[in-house]
Amino acid sequence: MNTKKQIKIILASGVLGFIIIALPAVAATTLSLSPENINIQSGQRFNVAVNINPQEVKNYTVKVELQYPSDLIEVASFTFGTGWMALSQPGYDTIDNAGGVLIKTAGYPAGVSALINFGTVSFVAKKTGSAAIKVGSNSLALDASN
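Now predict its structure.
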C-alpha cells in the first residue's frame, strides 16, 4: 500500500473515531418541561418546571430557550433552581413576552451529572385557551470540554 493511501486511511479512521466518541456527549443531555401543555383561563397563573437530565455526562453550563404562544401567555418571572449561577449577558438572559421567547443561562460550579431542576417559570394567561410551551433549538448544555 502506498503512503498516500495509508495517510487517507489513518485520517478517515481518526475522524470516524472522533465522531463515535463525541456523539454520546452531544446527544446525552435532555431538557424537559412539566407541564408542556396546559389549558388555561384568562388571568390564571401557573408554573412550569424546567429540568435537566445530563444522563451521567457532567454538565457545567446550560442555556435554555423556551418558546411559548405570546398571544395566550406571558412570563411573569423565572427562578433558578438551587446551586445554579446565572449568566446575565445579552443573548443569554432574555424574557421577550412580545415574541414568546425566554432564554436563561447558568453554570453549575461543581458540574451536574444527574437529573436536576434548572428553574421554574411562572406564567400568566392573557386569555382562555390551550398553550404549548416548547424547548427551542438554541438550547444547549456544555460539559468540561464545551
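The chain has a mean pLDDT of 85.
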